[in-house]
Structures are given as C-alpha cells and as structure tokens.
Design goal:
CATH topology of the largest domain: Arc Repressor Mutant, subunit A
Number of helices: 8
CATH class of the largest domain: Mainly Alpha
Length: 174
C-alpha cells in the first residue's frame, strides 16, 4: 500500500476532481484489492491490476454523481508534484521564460481538465503514470484500438485548446 498509495490517489483525484472524495475512493480501492487478492494474476503487472480497480471504483462513483470538468491540479497539491509545478520549474534561467512556462503549464492543465472523462483518464494513465497502451487497455477495459483512438483524439483536442489559448507550435503565447 505504501508503494502505490500516492499513484492511486493521484489518478483518482485527477479523475474525480475532489481530494476528500479521492481519499475515500483510494481507501475503497485498497480494500477491494485486499479482498480480491486471490484474483490477481502474477503473470501481469500488479500496478495495472490495482489501477484497474481504482479506475472502476472511480467510474462507479462518477456515474452515481454525474461527471463534470475537473481541474488537472488537485487544490491542495502543496508538494509540487502536479503538472503546473513541474512545467513551472524555477531552475529556468530567465524570469520571463519561467513565467511563460508557467502560463503554458496552466493552459495545458486547463485543457486536460476540460477533456471528456474517458480521454482525460487515458491521457493521465499514459503521460502521468507512464503506462503502455496495452496496460491502459487492461486498466480501462477497452480494446487496444480504442485506447489509441481516444489518445489520438485527446491529443488533437489538447492541441486545439492550446491553440485557442494562444499557444502555437513554437510554444510561445501569441
């Protein structure tokens, strides 16, 4: 649990949008995993199996509650692990470049947060958790082709949203 607590919580909070709800759903995920430990196939990655349980638990919650656009950054991400914190790295040489990078990070976070939930989840699993396409397919219980299609469409929507926000191919606000 110690090894996967943070990644599971992060995935859930980014899907659900509320840290308090994410804590409850993460706890529920670990309880389900413990109860279903006998169903785990050691031939597969444990993280994929656990993310699948987290995915299903969160989707069940979202279906009961209804879905909405959620911010990519958890509201209490004081530890600097979020996308905005990573892209707004203070180690950049010029204040102008750091500010520009922070603006791009905020635009990207807003664009990812505005994606349809199924696209947002696949983007997060791919780029935040680093899962391979096949692992994403297993976690999301989708055919591999659907995962690739969703990821392609999500990238296209992200490019359009960033362009609408004034970010061209050069990455400079216009």
């Amino acid at each position: 649990m110690e090894r996967f607590e943070r990644p599971v919580f992060t995935l859930i909070v980014r899907m659900a949008g509320d840290p308090a709800t994410a804590e409850d759903l993460a706890q529920e995920t670990f309880l389900k995993a413990f109860r279903r430990l006998g169903t785990y196939d050691p031939e597969r990655r444990f993280s994929s199996w656990l993310f699948k349980i987290a995915h299903n638990t969160t989707l069940d919650h979202l279906r009961r509650r209804g879905t909405e656009t959620v911010p990519l950054e958890p509201p209490d991400d004081d530890e600097g692990h979020g996308l905005v914190a990573i892209l707004a790295d203070d180690s950049l040489r010029s204040p102008e470049a750091a500010a520009q990078r922070g603006d791009l990070a905020a635009a990207l976070a807003a664009a990812v947060g505005a994606l349809r939930p199924e696209y947002r989840e696949i983007v997060l699993l791919r780029y935040q958790e680093g899962l391979a396409y096949q692992e994403i397919a297993e976690v999301a219980d989708l055919p591999l082709g659907t995962v690739k299609t969703h990821l392609h469409r999500a990238r296209r929507e992200l490019m359009a949203a960033l362009a609408a926000a004034g970010w061209g191919p050069e990455g400079i606000a216009g």
